[in-house]
Write a structure and sequence with these properties.
Elements lengths: L1 E11 L3 E9 L2 E7 L10 E10 L8 E3 L7 E17 L2 E8 L3 E10 L2 E6 L11 H4 L16
Antiparallel strand pairs: 1-2, 1-6, 2-3, 3-4, 4-9, 5-6, 6-7, 7-8, 8-9
Length: about 150
């Protein structure tokens, strides 16, 4: 088990989505998760891989304007320690220790630009829950992304 960290940023860009970033090998491996993560093991979420980001990107909360990474409002929806259990070319297993997300998660490649994010059935799983609707605020500031829109 390799200790690491993760961050989930809610990003209102062309479309509202969640950016899941996990520190692996000195960079933040990143996936865009359109509907956000789920604590329900029965829910499979599309996760589209995007380019790795530098560590400082995981600390950004505010409004991107004219950035090469895209514009729009960003909040830090969740963050914490990540324990990487398995890191293979088509699969990443991780245990997250966030304020909203906890327990095991798996990311599995299902196509060239398609991965699936799934919550592991463990003591942290909450069948039927919708953590993104129940907890829309930033873990750092308590603000919602709409609070930053000018």
């Amino acid at each position: 088990m390799t200790p690491s960290r993760f961050v989930v940023q809610l990003h209102d860009a062309t479309r509202l989505h969640y950016d899941l970033r996990i520190l692996v090998g000195g960079a933040l491996r990143s996936w865009a998760v359109p509907k956000g993560p789920s604590m329900d093991p029965a829910v499979r979420r599309l996760a589209v891989p995007v380019e790795d980001h530098e560590l400082s990107a995981g600390d950004f909360e505010g409004v991107h304007e004219g950035s090469r990474r895209g514009t729009g409002v960003v909040i830090i929806w969740d963050e914490g320690r990540a324990d990487i259990r398995r890191d293979d070319p088509g699969h990443l297993s991780v245990v997250l220790h966030g304020q909203k997300l906890g327990g095991g998660f798996g990311l599995t490649r299902t196509g060239v630009q398609r991965w699936v994010l799934v919550k592991v059935r463990d003591e942290f799983a909450v069948p039927g829950s919708d953590i993104t609707a129940d907890r829309p605020e930033s873990v750092r500031t308590g603000r919602r992304w709409q609070d930053l829109v000018r």
